[in-house]
């Protein structure tokens, strides 16, 4: 059964009508350089899988061609929207802007046989490279649709991040938040503070080795993501979660003594120092780090953490938040912070808050989150009991490499149904649709050390989060049917199989 995740605004299958067939005469027919760039990115995959030449050309598209057109009004003015028509007369994707055109190609990717995911043209599908006759009109609900990867607790190599980016693009997620620093590791090269990685990247949880991204590695990730319309959101977690930085530079510590590198999984024990004696070093650190990371990052955002600073006295916390957010703004970025940052009433205007309490808000979380909106910003929702991909699955299944994976502090294990069955509006009282910039699914890696383990925890629950972030709300006429989602998920599973993704075959899904 053909289907698309996230569910498009409208999807009509023309049963009985002739399908589209890709053959050795097929071409990508585009209008202009932007459409050509989108075509080349998608053509890379299709050529590798099919062995077909598939030139990208300008002109009139024919019955065996895929037409990719950018035109004003083609997707109703939505820059990420698109329309797609497929059938015996060809495939035509049209959009107002390049981003929408690209998301159209990712819908086409899901409508093609799963062998389209293969990197070598070793096996053509038995029925040929066909696409069912269909009409799609689509645009996203939320502008920010993200995943977060914690590369600090365990490090993931550049190639693994690129693969992750590709899987995100299949689901039309458009932001990858990289949690680059924490107590256990500093994972991004900072030229002016070389020991941040020299010492600060030397280990990880459990002491299984360290690692970091050189400036060129990071540029490579940014560029690969940009070609897939995914914005990299770097996080430098401050002022807590900083043991790795503190271990590298004694002058950042109030007592002037660098702590040992940390390989455990506790939180809330480290902090930058707010004391005037350390002001010179601390401000130089904040200014240099935010400047260098900002220079490497074309996207608008710099995430400054702000969570769980339990070792920072409250007045010091507010002081440090003031100093670090000013440094980020001076570096030209819009700040994102975990909801605790909303304790400050002096945030730079437009600062974005990331909510990580539960579907039922706990303690001060709702008040802190509203504080961002009161200060001219918007909100990213990551309710931990439904959107945290490091929460255990029910039944605590054995991971792909043996042993069990995940944490359970967020109200216990999280099923696929729970990841799918929540509505963003109404979680935080007073936060409505237009206050919500978007949705993000974080994966923290205290218990996750390898790619198969990462994939097992992330898939399939991330598909549920992607649908919540993209597809129309029930209030806006969308439908949320678990059975329909499960059927489309089974189809997506055939693509994940070809990609070699070690997803968890949860019950209740008719996996092939
Ligand atoms: C809380 S969520 C954290 C992280 C942990 C995570 C584990 C948040 C802002 N902070 O430091 O890794 O729980 O699930």
UniProtKB/TrEMBL annotation:
<dbReference type="InterPro" id="IPR029018">
    <property type="entry name" value="Hex-like_dom2"/>
</dbReference>
<dbReference type="GO" id="GO:0030203">
    <property type="term" value="P:glycosaminoglycan metabolic process"/>
</dbReference>
<dbReference type="GO" id="GO:0004563">
    <property type="term" value="F:beta-N-acetylhexosaminidase activity"/>
</dbReference>
<dbReference type="Pfam" id="PF00728">
    <property type="entry name" value="Glyco_hydro_20"/>
</dbReference>
<keyword id="KW-0326">Glycosidase</keyword>
<dbReference type="GO" id="GO:0016020">
    <property type="term" value="C:membrane"/>
</dbReference>
<dbReference type="Pfam" id="PF02838">
    <property type="entry name" value="Glyco_hydro_20b"/>
</dbReference>
<dbReference type="InterPro" id="IPR017853">
    <property type="entry name" value="GH"/>
</dbReference>
<protein>
    <recommendedName>
        <fullName>beta-N-acetylhexosaminidase</fullName>
        <ecNumber>3.2.1.52</ecNumber>
    </recommendedName>
</protein>
<dbReference type="GO" id="GO:0005975">
    <property type="term" value="P:carbohydrate metabolic process"/>
</dbReference>
<dbReference type="InterPro" id="IPR015883">
    <property type="entry name" value="Glyco_hydro_20_cat"/>
</dbReference>
<feature type="domain" description="Glycoside hydrolase family 20 catalytic">
    <location>
        <begin position="142"/>
        <end position="309"/>
    </location>
</feature>
<feature type="domain" description="Glycoside hydrolase family 20 catalytic">
    <location>
        <begin position="321"/>
        <end position="472"/>
    </location>
</feature>
<dbReference type="InterPro" id="IPR015882">
    <property type="entry name" value="HEX_bac_N"/>
</dbReference>
<comment type="similarity">
    <text>Belongs to the glycosyl hydrolase 20 family.</text>
</comment>
<feature type="domain" description="Beta-hexosaminidase bacterial type N-terminal">
    <location>
        <begin position="2"/>
        <end position="138"/>
    </location>
</feature>
<keyword id="KW-0378">Hydrolase</keyword>
<dbReference type="InterPro" id="IPR025705">
    <property type="entry name" value="Beta_hexosaminidase_sua/sub"/>
</dbReference>
<feature type="active site" description="Proton donor">
    <location>
        <position position="308"/>
    </location>
</feature>
